[in-house]
Amino acid sequence: MNPLAVYVHIPFCPSKCGYCDFNSYAMQGEIVERTARAIIREIRESPWAGRPAKTIFFGGGTPTFIPAPLLVEVLNAVTDTHPPLPNAEITTEANPGTVDASKLETLRAGGFNRVSLGAQSFDDGDLVRLGRVHRAGEIERAVRAAHEASFDNLNLDLMFGLPDQSRAAWRANLARAISLEPEHLSLYCLTIEPNTPFYKLHLRGELPLPDDEQQVAFYEDCLERAAAAGYEAYEISNFAQPGRECRHNLCYWRAEEYAGYGPGAVGAVRDPALGVRVRTTNLKHPERYACAIEAGGPAAYESEPLDSATLQTERVMLGLRLAEGIEVDGLDEGALSRLARRGWIERDTGRVRLTRAGRLFCNDAVVELI
Ligand code: SF4
Predict the structure, then answer these.
(1) For the chain, what is the domain count?
(2) Radical SAM core domain: from which residue to which, for each copy (predicted)?
(3) What is the distance in A from the centroid of ligand 1 to the CA of 156?
(4) Hey, whose CA ends up nearest to atom 6 of ligand 1?
(5) Are residues 243 and 341 in the same domain?
(6) Is 365 inside any structural domain?
(7) Is the pLDDT of residue 138 over 90?
Protein backbone atom coordinates (compact mmCIF):
# COMPACT_ATOMS: atom_id res chain seq x y z
CA MET A 1 0.00 0.00 0.00
CA ASN A 2 1.18 3.52 -0.80
CA PRO A 3 2.49 5.48 2.16
CA LEU A 4 0.88 8.76 3.13
CA ALA A 5 1.47 11.64 5.54
CA VAL A 6 -0.55 11.67 8.77
CA TYR A 7 -1.67 14.81 10.60
CA VAL A 8 -3.23 14.81 14.09
CA HIS A 9 -4.89 17.97 15.41
CA ILE A 10 -4.87 18.62 19.16
CA PRO A 11 -7.14 21.67 19.53
CA PHE A 12 -6.30 22.94 23.02
CA CYS A 13 -4.15 25.83 24.24
CA PRO A 14 -3.56 27.32 27.68
CA SER A 15 -5.10 30.59 26.38
CA LYS A 16 -5.97 32.13 23.04
CA CYS A 17 -3.39 34.42 21.39
CA GLY A 18 -4.71 37.73 20.09
CA TYR A 19 -3.83 37.05 16.44
CA CYS A 20 -4.86 33.38 16.30
CA ASP A 21 -7.52 32.07 13.93
CA PHE A 22 -6.48 28.41 14.20
CA ASN A 23 -8.95 25.80 15.38
CA SER A 24 -7.85 26.05 19.01
CA TYR A 25 -9.71 26.43 22.31
CA ALA A 26 -8.67 27.53 25.77
CA MET A 27 -10.60 24.65 27.37
CA GLN A 28 -9.72 22.54 30.39
CA GLY A 29 -11.19 19.66 32.37
CA GLU A 30 -12.73 16.42 31.16
CA ILE A 31 -13.19 17.58 27.54
CA VAL A 32 -9.42 17.41 27.01
CA GLU A 33 -9.06 13.70 27.77
CA ARG A 34 -12.44 12.95 26.16
CA THR A 35 -11.29 14.55 22.92
CA ALA A 36 -7.97 12.67 23.01
CA ARG A 37 -9.88 9.38 23.47
CA ALA A 38 -12.15 10.30 20.55
CA ILE A 39 -9.09 11.02 18.38
CA ILE A 40 -7.67 7.61 19.31
CA ARG A 41 -10.96 5.96 18.32
CA GLU A 42 -11.14 7.91 15.05
CA ILE A 43 -7.60 6.76 14.17
CA ARG A 44 -8.19 3.13 15.14
CA GLU A 45 -11.38 3.03 13.01
CA SER A 46 -9.74 4.80 10.07
CA PRO A 47 -10.83 3.84 6.54
CA TRP A 48 -7.17 4.28 5.57
CA ALA A 49 -5.84 1.81 8.16
CA GLY A 50 -2.88 -0.19 6.94
CA ARG A 51 -1.43 2.54 4.76
CA PRO A 52 2.09 3.20 6.07
CA ALA A 53 3.02 6.64 7.40
CA LYS A 54 5.93 8.40 5.73
CA THR A 55 5.57 11.28 8.19
CA ILE A 56 3.45 11.98 11.27
CA PHE A 57 2.77 15.50 12.52
CA PHE A 58 0.94 16.55 15.69
CA GLY A 59 -0.22 20.17 15.40
CA GLY A 60 -2.74 22.41 17.02
CA GLY A 61 -3.54 24.15 19.15
CA THR A 62 -0.75 23.09 21.44
CA PRO A 63 -0.27 19.31 21.43
CA THR A 64 1.99 19.54 24.48
CA PHE A 65 -0.86 21.12 26.46
CA ILE A 66 -2.18 17.60 27.05
CA PRO A 67 -0.26 15.19 29.32
CA ALA A 68 2.71 13.57 27.58
CA PRO A 69 1.60 9.95 28.28
CA LEU A 70 -1.77 10.72 26.66
CA LEU A 71 -0.04 12.26 23.63
CA VAL A 72 2.06 9.10 23.34
CA GLU A 73 -1.15 7.00 23.50
CA VAL A 74 -2.47 8.97 20.53
CA LEU A 75 0.84 8.41 18.72
CA ASN A 76 0.61 4.67 19.45
CA ALA A 77 -2.84 4.62 17.81
CA VAL A 78 -1.31 6.29 14.74
CA THR A 79 1.65 3.90 14.49
CA ASP A 80 -0.60 0.84 15.03
CA THR A 81 -2.90 2.07 12.25
CA HIS A 82 -0.25 3.50 9.93
CA PRO A 83 3.02 1.60 10.47
CA PRO A 84 5.73 4.22 10.01
CA LEU A 85 8.34 3.76 7.29
CA PRO A 86 11.89 3.33 8.63
CA ASN A 87 13.21 6.73 9.78
CA ALA A 88 9.79 8.36 9.42
CA GLU A 89 9.76 11.94 10.65
CA ILE A 90 7.46 12.17 13.71
CA THR A 91 6.92 15.74 14.86
CA THR A 92 5.03 17.42 17.63
CA GLU A 93 4.48 21.14 17.85
CA ALA A 94 5.15 22.52 21.32
CA ASN A 95 4.76 25.79 23.11
CA PRO A 96 7.96 26.59 25.04
CA GLY A 97 5.82 27.36 28.10
CA THR A 98 4.25 23.88 28.09
CA VAL A 99 7.33 21.63 28.00
CA ASP A 100 10.05 20.69 30.44
CA ALA A 101 12.81 18.08 30.34
CA SER A 102 10.67 15.30 31.77
CA LYS A 103 7.79 15.88 29.34
CA LEU A 104 10.18 16.00 26.39
CA GLU A 105 11.89 12.80 27.57
CA THR A 106 8.51 11.03 27.68
CA LEU A 107 7.71 12.24 24.17
CA ARG A 108 11.12 11.21 22.80
CA ALA A 109 10.90 7.77 24.44
CA GLY A 110 7.34 7.47 23.10
CA GLY A 111 8.48 7.81 19.49
CA PHE A 112 8.51 11.51 18.58
CA ASN A 113 11.80 12.43 16.87
CA ARG A 114 11.23 16.07 15.91
CA VAL A 115 9.90 19.02 17.88
CA SER A 116 8.64 22.31 16.52
CA LEU A 117 8.72 25.12 19.09
CA GLY A 118 6.43 28.11 18.67
CA ALA A 119 9.00 30.69 19.82
CA GLN A 120 7.58 33.66 17.82
CA SER A 121 9.82 36.30 19.43
CA PHE A 122 12.67 36.68 21.92
CA ASP A 123 11.27 39.98 23.12
CA ASP A 124 9.05 39.64 26.20
CA GLY A 125 7.16 42.80 25.21
CA ASP A 126 6.21 41.18 21.87
CA LEU A 127 5.21 37.96 23.60
CA VAL A 128 2.93 39.79 26.04
CA ARG A 129 1.34 41.76 23.23
CA LEU A 130 0.79 38.63 21.13
CA GLY A 131 -0.90 36.95 24.08
CA ARG A 132 1.65 34.14 24.26
CA VAL A 133 1.91 32.26 27.56
CA HIS A 134 5.71 31.85 27.41
CA ARG A 135 8.59 34.28 27.83
CA ALA A 136 11.92 34.47 25.99
CA GLY A 137 13.86 32.66 28.70
CA GLU A 138 11.58 29.65 28.35
CA ILE A 139 12.48 29.27 24.65
CA GLU A 140 16.13 28.76 25.48
CA ARG A 141 15.25 26.41 28.34
CA ALA A 142 12.96 24.40 26.03
CA VAL A 143 15.69 24.10 23.37
CA ARG A 144 18.18 22.89 26.00
CA ALA A 145 15.64 20.44 27.41
CA ALA A 146 14.89 19.10 23.91
CA HIS A 147 18.59 18.46 23.32
CA GLU A 148 18.91 16.79 26.74
CA ALA A 149 15.96 14.58 25.79
CA SER A 150 17.91 13.54 22.63
CA PHE A 151 15.85 15.45 20.10
CA ASP A 152 18.27 16.23 17.29
CA ASN A 153 15.75 17.71 14.88
CA LEU A 154 14.25 20.93 16.08
CA ASN A 155 12.32 23.77 14.47
CA LEU A 156 11.78 27.27 15.79
CA ASP A 157 8.81 29.34 14.55
CA LEU A 158 9.37 33.09 14.56
CA MET A 159 7.09 35.89 13.38
CA PHE A 160 8.11 39.23 11.92
CA GLY A 161 6.12 42.34 11.12
CA LEU A 162 4.92 42.56 14.74
CA PRO A 163 3.33 45.74 16.14
CA ASP A 164 5.96 48.43 16.66
CA GLN A 165 8.74 46.02 15.67
CA SER A 166 11.86 47.72 14.36
CA ARG A 167 14.23 46.18 11.85
CA ALA A 168 16.94 46.10 14.51
CA ALA A 169 14.61 44.22 16.86
CA TRP A 170 13.78 41.70 14.13
CA ARG A 171 17.46 41.20 13.33
CA ALA A 172 18.16 40.64 17.02
CA ASN A 173 15.39 38.03 17.14
CA LEU A 174 16.79 36.23 14.11
CA ALA A 175 20.30 36.28 15.54
CA ARG A 176 19.09 34.84 18.82
CA ALA A 177 17.19 32.05 17.07
CA ILE A 178 20.17 31.19 14.86
CA SER A 179 22.50 31.18 17.88
CA LEU A 180 20.46 28.26 19.27
CA GLU A 181 21.36 26.27 16.12
CA PRO A 182 17.96 24.73 15.38
CA GLU A 183 17.95 22.41 12.37
CA HIS A 184 15.00 24.32 10.90
CA LEU A 185 13.50 27.81 11.02
CA SER A 186 9.96 28.84 10.03
CA LEU A 187 9.85 32.62 9.57
CA TYR A 188 6.39 34.07 8.93
CA CYS A 189 5.03 37.58 8.63
CA LEU A 190 2.22 38.30 11.09
CA THR A 191 -1.08 38.32 9.22
CA ILE A 192 -4.20 39.92 10.59
CA GLU A 193 -7.10 37.49 10.30
CA PRO A 194 -10.78 38.44 10.56
CA ASN A 195 -12.57 37.54 13.80
CA THR A 196 -9.49 37.91 15.96
CA PRO A 197 -8.87 40.54 18.68
CA PHE A 198 -5.96 41.81 16.55
CA TYR A 199 -8.36 42.42 13.67
CA LYS A 200 -10.53 44.65 15.86
CA LEU A 201 -7.48 46.55 17.09
CA HIS A 202 -6.33 46.94 13.49
CA LEU A 203 -9.73 48.32 12.41
CA ARG A 204 -9.57 50.85 15.27
CA GLY A 205 -6.08 51.89 14.15
CA GLU A 206 -4.56 50.64 17.39
CA LEU A 207 -2.12 48.15 15.87
CA PRO A 208 0.98 49.95 14.58
CA LEU A 209 2.17 47.44 11.98
CA PRO A 210 5.18 47.81 9.68
CA ASP A 211 4.27 48.89 6.14
CA ASP A 212 4.83 46.76 3.02
CA GLU A 213 8.30 48.18 2.43
CA GLN A 214 9.39 47.35 5.98
CA GLN A 215 7.95 43.85 5.70
CA VAL A 216 9.97 43.27 2.52
CA ALA A 217 13.09 44.46 4.39
CA PHE A 218 12.35 42.02 7.22
CA TYR A 219 11.99 39.21 4.70
CA GLU A 220 15.27 40.19 3.01
CA ASP A 221 16.86 39.81 6.46
CA CYS A 222 15.44 36.27 6.65
CA LEU A 223 16.98 35.34 3.31
CA GLU A 224 20.36 36.90 4.04
CA ARG A 225 20.87 35.91 7.67
CA ALA A 226 19.57 32.37 7.26
CA ALA A 227 21.74 31.79 4.18
CA ALA A 228 24.81 33.18 5.99
CA ALA A 229 24.19 30.69 8.80
CA GLY A 230 23.94 27.72 6.41
CA TYR A 231 20.15 27.41 6.12
CA GLU A 232 18.63 26.76 2.70
CA ALA A 233 15.48 28.70 1.81
CA TYR A 234 13.72 25.59 0.52
CA GLU A 235 10.27 27.21 0.81
CA ILE A 236 9.22 30.84 0.94
CA SER A 237 8.95 30.92 4.74
CA ASN A 238 10.98 27.85 5.67
CA PHE A 239 14.72 27.46 6.06
CA ALA A 240 16.63 24.28 6.86
CA GLN A 241 20.09 22.97 7.39
CA PRO A 242 20.91 20.59 4.52
CA GLY A 243 18.75 17.46 4.73
CA ARG A 244 16.58 18.87 7.57
CA GLU A 245 13.64 20.16 5.54
CA CYS A 246 10.30 19.38 7.17
CA ARG A 247 9.35 16.21 5.28
CA HIS A 248 5.76 16.40 6.48
CA ASN A 249 5.17 19.89 5.15
CA LEU A 250 6.94 18.93 1.91
CA CYS A 251 4.12 16.39 1.41
CA TYR A 252 1.59 19.25 1.51
CA TRP A 253 3.58 21.52 -0.77
CA ARG A 254 4.10 18.67 -3.23
CA ALA A 255 0.34 18.00 -3.13
CA GLU A 256 0.76 14.43 -1.92
CA GLU A 257 -1.84 12.43 0.01
CA TYR A 258 -2.38 13.01 3.72
CA ALA A 259 -4.78 11.71 6.33
CA GLY A 260 -6.09 14.13 8.98
CA TYR A 261 -7.41 13.13 12.42
CA GLY A 262 -8.82 15.21 15.26
CA PRO A 263 -11.21 18.18 15.49
CA GLY A 264 -11.10 20.32 12.38
CA ALA A 265 -8.43 18.16 10.72
CA VAL A 266 -8.40 18.07 6.94
CA GLY A 267 -7.33 15.04 4.90
CA ALA A 268 -6.85 14.44 1.19
CA VAL A 269 -6.68 10.73 0.42
CA ARG A 270 -7.46 8.77 -2.74
CA ASP A 271 -10.73 6.85 -2.51
CA PRO A 272 -10.18 3.56 -4.37
CA ALA A 273 -13.93 3.13 -5.01
CA LEU A 274 -14.28 6.59 -6.60
CA GLY A 275 -10.83 6.54 -8.20
CA VAL A 276 -10.17 10.15 -7.12
CA ARG A 277 -8.73 11.98 -4.17
CA VAL A 278 -11.31 13.13 -1.60
CA ARG A 279 -10.87 16.05 0.78
CA THR A 280 -12.46 15.45 4.19
CA THR A 281 -12.90 18.10 6.89
CA ASN A 282 -13.67 17.07 10.47
CA LEU A 283 -16.10 18.73 12.87
CA LYS A 284 -14.23 21.60 14.43
CA HIS A 285 -15.49 22.02 17.96
CA PRO A 286 -14.04 19.43 20.39
CA GLU A 287 -17.43 18.83 22.05
CA ARG A 288 -19.25 18.21 18.76
CA TYR A 289 -16.36 16.13 17.43
CA ALA A 290 -16.19 13.94 20.56
CA CYS A 291 -20.01 13.47 20.60
CA ALA A 292 -19.98 12.37 16.94
CA ILE A 293 -17.21 9.83 17.48
CA GLU A 294 -18.78 8.51 20.72
CA ALA A 295 -22.06 8.00 18.85
CA GLY A 296 -20.21 5.91 16.25
CA GLY A 297 -20.69 8.53 13.56
CA PRO A 298 -18.15 9.99 11.17
CA ALA A 299 -15.83 12.75 12.36
CA ALA A 300 -16.03 14.50 9.00
CA TYR A 301 -18.78 17.01 8.22
CA GLU A 302 -17.57 17.65 4.70
CA SER A 303 -16.31 15.29 2.03
CA GLU A 304 -15.42 16.65 -1.40
CA PRO A 305 -14.01 14.69 -4.35
CA LEU A 306 -11.21 16.74 -5.92
CA ASP A 307 -11.43 17.15 -9.69
CA SER A 308 -8.36 17.55 -11.89
CA ALA A 309 -8.78 21.36 -12.15
CA THR A 310 -8.74 21.69 -8.34
CA LEU A 311 -5.71 19.42 -8.05
CA GLN A 312 -3.87 21.44 -10.71
CA THR A 313 -4.68 24.71 -8.88
CA GLU A 314 -3.36 23.26 -5.62
CA ARG A 315 -0.24 21.92 -7.34
CA VAL A 316 0.56 25.48 -8.53
CA MET A 317 -0.45 27.30 -5.32
CA LEU A 318 1.55 25.02 -3.04
CA GLY A 319 4.39 23.89 -5.28
CA LEU A 320 5.40 27.34 -6.41
CA ARG A 321 6.30 28.14 -2.80
CA LEU A 322 9.12 25.59 -3.00
CA ALA A 323 12.63 26.39 -4.21
CA GLU A 324 12.43 23.22 -6.33
CA GLY A 325 9.37 24.70 -8.08
CA ILE A 326 6.92 22.64 -10.17
CA GLU A 327 6.81 20.83 -13.48
CA VAL A 328 5.93 23.06 -16.42
CA ASP A 329 3.52 20.45 -17.84
CA GLY A 330 -0.02 21.78 -18.08
CA LEU A 331 0.91 25.43 -17.37
CA ASP A 332 -0.09 28.22 -19.74
CA GLU A 333 2.88 29.26 -21.90
CA GLY A 334 1.59 32.84 -22.25
CA ALA A 335 1.40 33.26 -18.48
CA LEU A 336 4.88 31.77 -18.05
CA SER A 337 6.29 34.24 -20.60
CA ARG A 338 4.67 37.20 -18.83
CA LEU A 339 6.07 36.09 -15.46
CA ALA A 340 9.52 35.52 -16.97
CA ARG A 341 9.48 39.05 -18.47
CA ARG A 342 8.77 40.47 -15.00
CA GLY A 343 11.74 38.51 -13.67
CA TRP A 344 9.58 36.52 -11.24
CA ILE A 345 10.31 33.00 -12.55
CA GLU A 346 13.10 30.98 -14.07
CA ARG A 347 12.86 27.71 -16.01
CA ASP A 348 15.08 24.72 -16.62
CA THR A 349 14.76 21.00 -17.32
CA GLY A 350 10.98 21.10 -17.50
CA ARG A 351 10.50 22.90 -14.17
CA VAL A 352 9.60 26.45 -13.22
CA ARG A 353 10.50 28.17 -9.97
CA LEU A 354 10.25 31.63 -8.43
CA THR A 355 13.28 33.89 -8.53
CA ARG A 356 14.33 35.80 -5.43
CA ALA A 357 12.32 38.79 -6.67
CA GLY A 358 9.40 36.49 -7.53
CA ARG A 359 9.21 35.20 -3.95
CA LEU A 360 7.76 38.57 -2.97
CA PHE A 361 4.97 38.15 -5.52
CA CYS A 362 4.12 34.47 -5.13
CA ASN A 363 0.36 35.05 -4.84
CA ASP A 364 0.29 37.26 -7.94
CA ALA A 365 2.31 34.67 -9.87
CA VAL A 366 -0.12 31.92 -8.81
CA VAL A 367 -3.12 34.01 -9.95
CA GLU A 368 -1.46 34.52 -13.34
CA LEU A 369 -0.79 30.78 -13.71
CA ILE A 370 -4.22 29.48 -12.69
S1 SF4 B 1 -0.52 28.87 20.78
FE2 SF4 B 1 -0.86 28.80 18.55
S3 SF4 B 1 -2.79 27.69 18.27
FE4 SF4 B 1 -2.66 28.28 20.44
S5 SF4 B 1 -3.80 30.19 20.56
FE6 SF4 B 1 -1.63 30.74 20.27
S7 SF4 B 1 -1.36 30.92 18.02
FE8 SF4 B 1 -3.31 29.84 18.40
Answers:
(1) 2
(2) 1-232
(3) 15
(4) 17
(5) no
(6) yes
(7) yes
Neighbours of 98 (CB within 10 A): 19
Task: Yes or no: say if 109 and 68 are a contact pair by the CB < 8 Å rule.
Answer: no
The best mutation among 10, 15, 16 to test binding of ligand 1, ranked by most ligand atoms within 8 Å of the C-beta, falls on 16
User: In the prediction, which pLDDT does 1 show?
Assistant: 86
Ligand 1 atom 7 nearest Cα: 20
Instruction: Please indicate whether residue 22, judged by its CB atom, sits closer than 6 Å to ligand 1.
Output: yes
Contact 262/42 with Cβ under 8 angstroms? yes
> Do 15 and 93 fall within a single domain?
yes
What is this structure's pTM?
A: 0.96
Enclosing domain of residue 339: 310-369
User: What are the tens digits of pLDDT across the range 103-136?
Assistant: 999 999 999 999 999 999 999 999 999 999 999 9
| Paired residues of 319 in beta bridges | none
Atom of ligand 1 nearest to the CA of 13: 4
Q: Ligand 1 centre and the CA of 43: distance in Å?
A: 24
Q: What is the CATH number of the domain that holds 87?
A: 3.20.20.70
**How remote is the C-alpha of 347 from its chain's centroid?**
28
